[in-house]
Amino acid sequence: MFSRLSRIAALAGLVVVLSAGLAAAHSYRLGPLRIGHLWAPPAAAGAGVPIYGAILDMGGEPVVLDGARTQIGKDVRIRRVDDGTPTFSDTFTFQPGKPVAFAKWREHLFVEGNERPLAAGDHFSMTLDFAHVGKIDVDVLVEAAPSD
To answer: What is the spatial distance between Cα 99 and Cα 25, in angstroms, rounded to a whole number?
Structure first.
């Protein structure tokens, strides 16, 4: 069942990434990477902020997300929660041709110690650093649930 959900999420992420024409303002390209709509749920000041969205490496080599930063918080890391226990990493490798949907049930970006409350309709910028590919500034929308 979980494997089927993972495949459905990956397919949904791929659709989001490849349909850049529908959400051009919130989709990005950096070299071989296609970055779909990034969003975060509302959060209180001082709480952590998860960031969800889809990224696809359309190149022939793996691409490493080597770091991220935003002005709303102290640190941005990769988080995964298994059985209620969070684990963190500073990097994530995107494999060629395999879409990744950052989601609550798998790896996702996580802003630690955000400095202000975030309500639906807010947005904030974040810089993603993809090691050898480069850096890109993206806009993260605050939404109660993902939109198209």
So the answer is: 20
